[in-house]
């Protein structure tokens, strides 16, 4: 028989038992939908994290202070006072460095009119927008004169502005940081991608010299952000910074009191975790496909038993064993393929809903669909071969006498 005849026969047969066919396909539908949706979620989460890392800055390197060890307890990175503003100045003189921004960070109550909040207050330099990839919405950013003269001026993030009820007309007004008056000179464009303490739009930026004088009282910094002139120079700049700081800190045995991280390292870590997570989620979802395959095999075995006399008649009028085998195998494939296509549609809808809720949109990889369809077909073949072979081996005389 031709394949088109077998396919038509298979669908006509499935059409006579729609409810049973639907229940048989359910396992495959759930399995394929789960694979598509969960893989999309994993890839969407990776995209969201990668976008956030990319938004942190252009060709970014982050130099962090070392850690403090007390007895048998080692503190977190940045807990030691091993980086200074002078180190940041020295780094800015290196070839290949586009901009440098040291950070003195603290948390202070900020008041504007009758509203207040406690954002992250960062003492920094004019290189901050370049290194961290910010742009101004209104007003101006901190300049070198503000650093040199310890001016009480402030630039705020978009979320901070919203929380304090400040807008473009507020430029030049006075806000209070830690009880001290500061002139508001600028509001930055929103970046998005964070909430709570990690919200990059909920911050107040003041001159690093002012932060040191009024709030921190030290020349030590926990973090120095560095923007390389180009992506090709990141490795070279990192090596130069390492050599410079080792020389300045008198390190000769390789026990550096600082760490340097790059976007490439962070993205590589995220990618590795994402790959493992995607495989794990796809593996879990694939269990449903196996369960669906067992359901197909069970129904096909029942179908062989129900249609024993039909098989005997077909063999008696000349049908070969391979024709019977092909007929039942195509029926199993039709069940799994139909379930796979329905599962893909449901998986895409679920991915769209989850992506819209999470904020990363629809992340759809055609390769996932190809794998899901291929897997559903494999399920149909693997779990359909045994019932089909059982039908093909029936003796026509015995089959005709079957009640």
Structural description of this entry:
Helix content is about 55%, strand content about 20%. Helix 9 packs antiparallel against helix 11 and helix 11 packs antiparallel against helix 12. It has 13 helices and 16 strands. It is of the alpha+beta class. It has two domains: about 180 residues, no CATH class; about 180 residues, no CATH class. Strands 1, 5, 6, 7, 8, 9, 10, 11, 12, 13, 15 and 16 form a twelve-stranded mixed β-sheet that branches. About 5% of the residues have low confidence.
Which helices and strands appear, and what pairs or packs with what?
Elements: H1 3-15, H2 18-55, E1 60-65, E2 69-70, E3 73-74, E4 83-84, H3 85-92, E5 97-107, E6 110-112, E7 115-117, E8 120-124, H4 128-132, E9 136-139, H5 144-148, E10 153-156, H6 158-163, E11 174-177, E12 180-188, E13 203-207, H7 208-216, E14 220-221, E15 223-228, H8 234-248, E16 258-262, H9 263-306, H10 308-316, H11 321-358, H12 366-392, H13 396-400
Parallel strand pairs: 8-13, 10-12
Antiparallel strand pairs: 1-15, 1-16, 2-3, 4-14, 5-8, 5-15, 6-7, 6-11, 9-12, 10-13, 11-12
Helix pairs in contact: 1-11, 2-9, 2-11, 2-12, 9-11, 9-12, 11-12
């Amino acid at each position: 028989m031709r394949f088109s005849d077998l396919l038509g026969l298979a669908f006509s047969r499935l059409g006579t038992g729609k409810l049973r066919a639907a229940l048989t396909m359910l396992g495959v539908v759930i399995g394929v939908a789960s694979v598509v949706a969960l893989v999309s979620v994993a890839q969407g989460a990776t995209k969201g994290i990668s976008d956030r890392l990319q938004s942190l800055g252009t060709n970014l390197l982050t130099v962090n202070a070392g850690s403090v060890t007390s007895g048998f307890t080692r503190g977190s990175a940045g807990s030691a006072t091993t980086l200074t503003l002078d180190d940041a100045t020295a780094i800015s003189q290196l070839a290949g460095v586009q901009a440098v921004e040291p950070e003195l960070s603290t948390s202070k109550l900020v008041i504007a009119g009758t509203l207040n909040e406690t954002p992250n207050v960062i003492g920094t330099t004019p290189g901050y927008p370049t290194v961290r990839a910010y742009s101004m919405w209104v007003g101006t950013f901190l300049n070198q004169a503000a650093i040199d003269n310890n001016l009480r001026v402030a630039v705020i993030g978009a979320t901070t502005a919203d929380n304090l009820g400040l807008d473009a007309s507020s430029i030049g007004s006075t806000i209070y940081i830690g009880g001290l008056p500061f002139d508001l000179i600028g509001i930055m464009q929103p970046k998005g991608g964070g909430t709570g303490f990690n919200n990059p739009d909920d911050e107040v930026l003041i001159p690093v010299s002012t932060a040191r004088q009024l709030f921190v009282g030290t020349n030590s910094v926990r973090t120095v952000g560095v923007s390389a002139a180009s992506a090709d120079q990141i490795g070279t700049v990192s090596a130069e910074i390492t050599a410079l700081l080792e020389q300045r800190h008198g390190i000769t045995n390789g026990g550096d009191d600082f760490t340097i991280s790059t976007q490439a390292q962070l993205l590589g870590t995220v990618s590795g975790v994402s790959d493992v997570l995607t495989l794990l989620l796809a593996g879990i979802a694939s269990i449903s496909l196996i369960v669906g395959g067992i359901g197909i095999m069970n129904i096909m075995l029942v179908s062989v038993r129900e249609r024993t006399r039909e098989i005997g008649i077909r063999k008696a009028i000349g049908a070969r064993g391979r024709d019977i085998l092909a007929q039942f195998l195509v029926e199993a494939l039709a069940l799994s393929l139909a379930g796979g296509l329905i599962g893909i549609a449901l998986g895409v809808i679920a991915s769209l809903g989850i992506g819209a809720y999470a904020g990363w949109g629809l992340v759809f990889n055609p390769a996932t669909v190809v794998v899901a369809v291929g897997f559903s077909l494999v399920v149909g073949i693997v779990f359909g071969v045994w019932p089909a072979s059982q039908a093909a081996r029936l003796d026509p005389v015995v089959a005709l006498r079957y009640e």
